[in-house]
Amino acid sequence: MALGIGIGMFVLLALIATAVVIIGWLIAVYNGLVQLRNQLDNAWAQIDVQLKRRYDLIPNLVETVKGYAKHERETFERVTQARNMAVSAKSVGERAEAENMLSGALKSLFAVAEAYPELKANQNFLGLQEELTSTENKISFARQFYNDNAMGYNTRIQTFPTMFIAGMFQFTKRDFFEVKAAAEREAPKVSF
What we know:
Blueprint: H1 2-68, H2 73-88, H3 92-114, H4 117-120, H5 123-158, H6 162-168
């Protein structure tokens, strides 16, 4: 009789220990996924910070160039329209597409500025140009940081056995911040 109680108790303790290990593993996996998701959200927020800075610089840059190149209205309108589209983009894909359009519009703006030697010597324009160059570099680094985090997150939610936990708690795949066209892969040229 004592042996039967001993084996029964051992089996019960083994089942309890197994349940504790499984629950502990589930908690660890879930917390790891939450941490990765929060890192990814932070990386996206860093892109937003730099893009906001870029959006704030663009109207000043346009106004400075407008003072010298009054007949380039179409270029100014394209830059302004592209900026507005980028500001209102919601998803990662929409934002990437809008940012690509904005980069192209900025290239046109700088091409216009190239035709005005007095503009290229203007201190305000030179300062804005330097700030935009710095911001473009920061955007590039922020995009890379975001994409690295998206890759880690996506890999984690798609690998066995974590994919089951991710599916249960609706952790979904995130898009990369990609540039689609090869010509748009370059930052706007701002050297004068």
